[in-house]
Amino acid sequence: MRIIETALPGxxxxxxxxxxxxxxxxxxxxxxxxxxxAGLDLRFVQTNVSRSARGVLRGLHYQWPNPQGKLVSxxxxxxYDVAVDIRVGSPSFGRWAAAxxxxxxKRHFWVPEGFAHGFVVLSEFxxxxxxxxxxxxxAADAGIRWNDGDIGVDWPIAEPQLSAKDQRAPFLAxxxxxxxxxxxx
Length: 185
Known about the structure:
Blueprint: E1 2-5, E2 12-15, E3 19-21, E4 24-26, H1 32-37, E5 46-53, E6 57-63, E7 70-76, E8 78-85, E9 96-102, E10 108-111, E11 115-121, E12 125-132, E13 141-143, H2 164-168
Antiparallel strand pairs: 1-2, 2-10, 3-4, 5-12, 6-11, 6-13, 7-10, 7-12, 8-9, 8-11
């Protein structure tokens, strides 16, 4: 397993060791000890799977309170995956990092608690999996506009397909600070 740092402290890409031959392949998508040895002591309580068509953008989503850390990966297809630091007081507040996740590269992206998350599908479709550190809490569910100019995510698509909820999401500057997670050193 190889850990690849991103521009955002705490957000990392995890590249598993893949064992393959003419029959196919095998890899560990998660091993608590190996992850802990790499500095990622994670406990998952919920796993979600979604399937989306090309051009669908989901995000930027977060929960506050009851934040979720997410270990995300793609089982089929390819996505452009994004994390945004929304921790009030963080030196990297409002900055983003992205990774291409695909069934071919088998990479995972760790999005810690306190970050917003979103992705857009680049292939015909994508099957996406999220391992979460907290249960979904509808009362804490929140989002930020995908194309917030102050954040400036360089999405590889100009006109994505969005849910009604994501179309109405506020800009980061318009969210009351008490509705965002605090930064803790």
